[in-house]
C-alpha cells in the first residue's frame, strides 16, 4: 500500500487519520507542523500528503505551495484536510497546488476514495 504523510498539529486528528489509513493498509508518516512536514516530505518522498491548514509556524497553504513548487516534491499529491470550509479557502488551496480539499470531520469512505483518486493520478 501507499506511504502517506499526515501534517497536522492536532493529536486527535492525527490519531483519527492514522487509524483510518492503517485500517486500509497504508503506512503513515507524521509531522506536527508545516515546516516539519515539508522537510519530511523531501526526505521520505511519501506517495501522498494529508495537510492541515491552521498550524503554528508554516501554515498548510504555505507548506502545500512549497511542496508543489519544488522539483523534488512536486509529484507528491497533497490533499488539504481542514476545518476551513469557505469556498475562497478551497480555491486558494487548489491554487497552492493541492490536488483535493476535504473539510473536517472527514469520514473514512470519503478520505479513502479521495486518496485512491489522487494516487491513481
From TrEMBL:
Keyword list, A-Z: Phosphoprotein
Lineage of source species: Bacteria, Pseudomonadati, Pseudomonadota, Gammaproteobacteria, Pseudomonadales
Domain Response regulatory: 3-119
4-aspartylphosphate modified-residue sites: 52
Any one Gene Ontology BP term: phosphorelay signal transduction system
UniProt protein name: Response regulator
Pfam families assigned to the protein according to its UniProt record, in alphabetical order: Response_reg
Domain of life: Bacteria
UniProt key word S-adenosyl-L-methionine: no
PROSITE patterns: RESPONSE_REGULATORY
Amino acid at each position: 500500500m501507499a506511504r502517506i504523510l499526515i501534517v497536522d498539529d492536532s493529536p486527535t486528528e492525527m490519531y483519527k487519520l492514522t487509524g483510518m489509513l492503517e485500517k486500509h493498509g497504508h503506512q503513515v508518516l507524521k509531522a506536527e507542523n508545516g515546516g516539519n512536514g515539508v522537510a519530511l516530505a523531501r526526505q521520505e518522498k511519501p506517495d501522498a500528503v494529508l495537510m492541515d491548514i491552521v498550524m503554528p509556524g508554516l501554515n498548510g497553504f504555505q507548506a502545500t505551495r512549497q511542496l508543489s513548487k519544488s522539483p523534488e516534491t512536486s509529484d507528491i499529491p497533497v490533499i488539504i484536510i481542514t476545518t476551513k470550509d469557505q469556498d475562497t479557502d478551497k480555491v486558494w488551496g487548489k491554487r497552492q497546488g493541492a490536488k483535493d480539499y476535504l473539510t473536517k470531520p472527514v469520514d473514512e469512505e470519503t478520505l479513502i476514495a479521495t486518496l485512491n483518486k489522487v494516487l491513481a493520478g
